[in-house]
Amino acid sequence: MSDLKYWLALNFVNDIGPVLTRRLLSAFGNPENIFGMTANELMKVEGIGENKVKGIIGFREWDRVDREIDRAVKNKANLITMTDKSYPQMLRHLPDAPIVLYVKGEIKDDDKYAIAMVGSRLPTDYGLSVAEKMSSAIASYGLTVVSGMARGIDAASHLGALKAGGRTIAVLGSGIDIPYPSENRGLMNAIASSGAVVTEFPLGTPPDRENFPRRNRIISALSLGVVVTEATVDSGSLITANYALEQGKTVFAVPGNITSATSRGTNDLIKKGARLIEEPEEIIDDLRPQIKGILREAKKALPPMADDEKNLCSFLSGEPKHIDLITRESGISTSEALSILLRLELKGIVRQANGKKFSLNW
User: Fold this and answer.
1) Is pTM beyond 0.85 here?
2) Mean pLDDT in the chain?
3) What is the pLDDT of residues 229-262, one digit of tens each?
4) How far apart are CA 181 and CA 76, in angstroms?
5) What are the φ and ψ backbone dihedral angles of 164, each rounded to 5 degrees?
6) Which CATH class is domain 109-291?
7) CATH class of the domain whose range is 1-74
8) Domain 307-360 carries which CATH code?
């Protein structure tokens, strides 16, 4: 029987989580040895009571283990155990590091130079614009962007990294065969092609509410620092920030509108000592001693623009502006302005928000 099967079996035993697994491995060396131990030998390990011993000795779900391996192959997912060379180095330091990781795509050694970006699932246009701008710049410097592939800030962060031609990693709170939310399936495939999608949850695991706080410790562990862009006072993003602090990582927060509920969490983080940032370069400067070996100059050159495009850009800023206000200020007809804005959007110079609002994308 392959070593992987014993790792999966250990992962499937009820009530034997990552912390107890480390203790068992410390005592007996490898998963195969653990399943070969007597009840008396297992009981000597701290935290392994009678019920857990019964779960190990009485494990009979080997058919489930075989099915899991077959399903992983069908889903083009790699199974990486905590002793594999490809297991992320940043995760090895966690006391509750996942026993097995399910991975679509590839985790590279340089992915240890990563920044996590998290925030609201219901962001404002401002939040979406900032998240995409920040992540695009971070990726342009050669760093990997880590997030959770949720709606809102997470998705915008992944998208910004992809648009910059950079690497990004998504950490799921579900099985790797269950993209969540479902509308992000296309985004998930793009991430797997330019980075990796990872989860500790077995195939078929639904995106249950309790999975996400657990998922968040992996997001922070994979990164050198965590950037929070828009979060309510009870946002799951604050859980990620707390994990980052526990792990000795830097927490950055983007300030927001004091009248907006989606900014109260981030503004509160700043009050408590999080690093206030307004530009991506501030993140780079703060982490420069840790990333100087990978850092490259960000590509800041804009695509060539026609005169009418330059003129319209002079009426735009980083804040989304409605098309009616743009046409009123510029004196350009709505049809002509929309035509120019479409060209600028295709060049990546302008981004469109909900409600026909436009802003500069740099």
Assistant:
1) no
2) 93
3) 999 999 999 999 999 999 999 999 999 999 999 9
4) 20
5) -85, 0
6) alpha beta
7) mainly alpha
8) 1.10.10.10
